[in-house]
Design a protein that fits this description.
Elements (H helix, E strand, L loop, with lengths): L1 E5 L7 H15 L4 E5 L13 H5 L8 H11 L2 E7 L7 H8 L5 E3 L7 E3 L7 E7 L11 H12 L2 E8 L12 H20 L1
Parallel strand pairs: 1-2, 1-3, 3-6, 6-7
Antiparallel strand pairs: 4-5
Helix pairs in contact: 1-6
Length: 196
């Protein structure tokens, strides 16, 4: 299964449209795809209570992430999409990523002391960021803010889609370059999941 997550505050906007295109491509290829629009979930940021060290999942809160943890564990593929806000991902995407903290274990024999229980399972990811800015440099850390934590958790990021010069809701569907890149990234994700 592929878990598709978008973190835009705008219903029916470009992040929504991008996720819909991924869902359509992947399901056409016979992959099950579960869509998540983070604005529809209410969840708290990680507060570092460390209960998850013992419980192996976040038990501090019973919230929207409680509903998503089974989907995260079940899925081998992840599509994560965010608009660019102030040179970074949205607070919803950041909070979503932060709550993956419960998948880390402290291990004295590891070089950095931490290991991810999601690692070594053939997990693949595609990340996408949609910006009105004209250059990738103007997107700030948005792509890094998604890629780096996912790689640390054990995901192989097989495609990155920085989409530039788009603001008006739904306009990504009219951008032939972006539409083709989404199709290629979806195919790459499906192929990589089938071969792992």
């Amino acid at each position: 299964m592929i878990l598709g997550v978008e973190g835009s505050p705008r219903r029916g906007g470009n992040s929504y449209s991008m996720l819909t295109m991924f869902s359509e491509h992947c399901t056409r290829e016979g992959m099950s795809f579960f869509d998540v629009h983070l604005r529809d979930y209410r969840y708290e940021p990680c507060v570092g209570c460390e209960r998850c060290r013992k419980d192996k999942i976040c038990t501090k809160f019973t919230d929207g992430m409680t509903l998503l943890y089974p989907k995260i564990q079940e899925s081998k593929g992840l599509v994560l999409i965010s608009p660019v806000h102030n040179y970074n991902v949205t607070a919803w995407v950041k909070g979503f990523i932060d709550r993956f903290y419960c998948y880390y274990d402290f291990t004295k024999d590891r070089p950095r002391g931490w290991s991810s229980r999601l690692a070594g399972q053939g997990r693949k990811a595609v990340i996408g960021a949609i910006a009105e800015q004209e250059t990738e440099a103007d997107m700030g850390i948005a792509m890094d803010a998604m890629r780096m934590p996912l790689e640390a958790l054990g995901f192989e990021v097989v495609a990155e889609l920085p989409v530039l010069n788009i603001f008006d809701a739904g306009h990504i569907k009219k951008n032939d370059v972006a539409v083709n890149q989404i199709a290629e990234a979806a195919q790459k994700l499906v192929t990589s999941l089938r071969s792992s």
